[in-house]
## 1
Amino acid sequence: MNRIKINLDKRLSESHEICIGYDFQDRMGLLIAKDHPANRYVIVTDSNVSQLYGRTFLEKLKELGLPVELLEFPAGEGSKTMETVLGLTARLLEMGADRHSMLIALGGGVVGDLTGFVASIYMRSVPFIQIPTTLMAQVDSSIGGKTAVNLPQGKNLLGTFYQPKRIFTDLKFLETLSDEEYLNGLAEIVKYGLIDEPGFFEQLEREVRALRARSLEILEPVIERSCRIKKGVVEIDEQESGFRRILNFGHTLGHALEAASKFTLPHGKAVALGMTAASRISACCGFLPPEERERIEALIRDLGLPVRIPSDVAGPEVLGRLAMDKKKEGNELPFILLKKIGIPFMSKDVGLSLPEKILEEMAA
Ligand SMILES: NC(=O)c1ccc[n+]([C@@H]2O[C@H](COP(=O)([O-])OP(=O)(O)OC[C@H]3O[C@@H](n4cnc5c(N)ncnc54)[C@H](O)[C@@H]3O)[C@@H](O)[C@H]2O)c1
Ligand SMILES: [Zn+2]
C-alpha cells in the first residue's frame, strides 16, 4: 500500500491522504478503527456494489467490533437526486447517527458524490471516508472534494466542496468492472496524459496493449500517477477559481455530446470525442503541432475509445448545447486547448464556428 498526501490550505480544508494498493480491505478496516474513531459507522453504497462488496465489508468492520450499518440505494446516475439525499437522511436519523458518526462511501462516482454531499450537510456536517470502486472514481471523482446531486434542470446543480478524511483506493475492486465502466476511467487517464508531463502520455502510448488487457502491473503505476496529477491540480486550486479548470479538458464538447445523445453516449466516450475535438481545434488555431494531434487521436483510438461521432448524435443539437453553455458563462465559452501535449491553456476566443466545422469533420 502506498500513500499520497493531499496538502490543502488549512483555512479551507484538512489535508488527508490516499492509501492506494491491491487487495487490502482487511487493512482498511484496521486503519479505520485506529485512525478514525466514531460512535457509529455507516457504509453508504449502491445496489450493485452492495451485492459485490458491501455486505462483506460490513462483516469485516463488525468483526473488528465496530458499530456499523449499511445503507444502499438503487445503482445508477438516476439516484443522484435530492430524493435519495432525503431518503438517506431519514435513515440516518432513524438509526441515531449524529455529528460523531462517520459515513463511508463505498462505490463509484455516484455513491461518492452523493455521500459526500450528505456528509457535508447532515447536522451541519459529519466526517466521511471515500472507498472508490470504479476506475473513474479512483482516478477522478474521489479526489478533490466536489460533491453534488443532479436536478431536473441539469447535472451537478446542487453541491458543495467537502473533503473526505481519507481515500482508500483498492485496485482489487476493478476486477468486476464492466468494459464500458473501465473505458470511462481510461478516458480520464488520457486526459491526465494531455494536461501534465508529456512523459505520462508517452507511457500510455507504450502501454496501450497492457492497458487494454487491464494488466495490474501497468494499472498500478498509471492509476497512482493519475491520482498524483489530480491531487496536484486540486492543491493549487481547491475550489476552482481558475487553474483547476484544466481538468475540464475535453469536457466542454464532451458534455454537449453527452446531452445531445440523451445520455446514450457514455461519459468516457463523450470525453474521448471531446478531447479529439479540442486537439483538432488546438491544431487548427496553430497551437498544437499536427503530428502531436495525430498521436493523441491514435492513442484514443488504440485504447478502444471513439474518435468519430456516432451518426445518431446530431451536430446542430451539439452546437445548441454549446451555445447554452456559452450563455451560462456570460457569453464566453471557455475552451481548454493544448499548446503541446502536456501544456493546456484556457481560451475564450474559440467561438462556435470552428467547433461546428470540427464536429462535421468528425461525423462518422
Ligand atoms: N466529484 C467529482 O469531482 C467528479 C468527477 C468526475 C465524475 N463525477 C461523477 O461521478 C459519476 C460517475 O461515476 P462512475 O462512472 O463511477 O459511475 P457509477 O457510480 O454510476 O458507477 C458505474 C456503475 O458501476 C457499478 N460499479 C461500481 N463499482 C463496481 C465494481 N467494482 N464492480 C462492478 N460494478 C461496479 C455501479 O453500481 C454502477 O452501476 C457521475 O455522477 C459524475 O458526475 C464526479
Ligand atoms: Zn469526466
## 2
Amino acid sequence: MTRIDPIPTNLSPDFLLRSLGITEPRDIDVEAIAYYVGVRIKRRCLKCCEAMITGRGNKGIISVVPGGMPQRERFSIAHELGHWAFHRGVTVACRSTDIGKFSKTNQVERAADQYAADLLMPWPLFKAECREHRRLDLKALKAVSAAFNTSQTATLIRMIDSDVYPTGIMICHGIGGRKWHQSARGIPGYWFPKADLHSESFAFDLLHNPDSRDEGFPRKIDADAWFDNWAAGQYQITEQSFRVPGEGVITILNLDPKMVR
Ligand SMILES: [Zn+2]
C-alpha cells in the first residue's frame, strides 16, 4: 500500500489518539497506530529480548516475540512506540524485565512504559471507566482490564495512579518476599508495606500452594498484618490477593480513609 498522508511528527499519545478520532477504549488499535506513524510490526523469535525497534528516519520496524498474551503483546508494541517517540536513532532491545515494570532506576525504560500506559489507557477514558467501579477490588480490575484489553498488572498500576482510589496500594510478592509496590499518591510514606508475607495470610498460601485459587472478595484484616508502623494496630484495612503468572502474587489493599488524612 502506498502511503499518501504525511507521517505525523507529533507522536504524543494524546495527539495520536485525537488525530485518529479514537474516543472509545476498544478503538485503540496499537498496530493501526504504529502503521499511522510509519512503523511496521514483525513477529519473530528474538535471541535475548521480548521486543525491539529498529529503523531510521520515518520508517521503523518493531519486532515482537510471538505467542505471548495479547494484552502483553499490545503493551510491548506500545512500549516500543515509546522508544520510537523518545529515543529514535538508537536500537533498543527490551527484555521482558524491561517492559511494564515502570523501573525506578532506568529512565529510558520507564519513559517507554509511561508512553505505553498513556497510549493504551488514556486518562480521560480510563478515569471515566474507573468511576464506574466504586471500590478498588479484583472485580473492578477485571472489568477495567477487559475494557482496555490490557494486562491486570499494567491496569492495576494505572488504577492506583488514577487518583480515583485514594486509599489503594498494590503489592507484588515473589518467593523471595516483596518485589515492589505502588501506592496512591496521597498515602503517607510511613505506610510502607512489610517485606515478608505473614505465613497464615491468603497471599502466602496463593504463592506457595499451586492448588489455591484467587481470593474471591476483599477481606477485612488488621493493618498490622501488612505494616510495622506503630499506629497500624489501630486500623482495619481490606486485602484481596490474586496470582500473576511469571510475577508472583499481587495484593490489593484498601486503607482506612483515616490512615490517609
Ligand atoms: Zn524498552
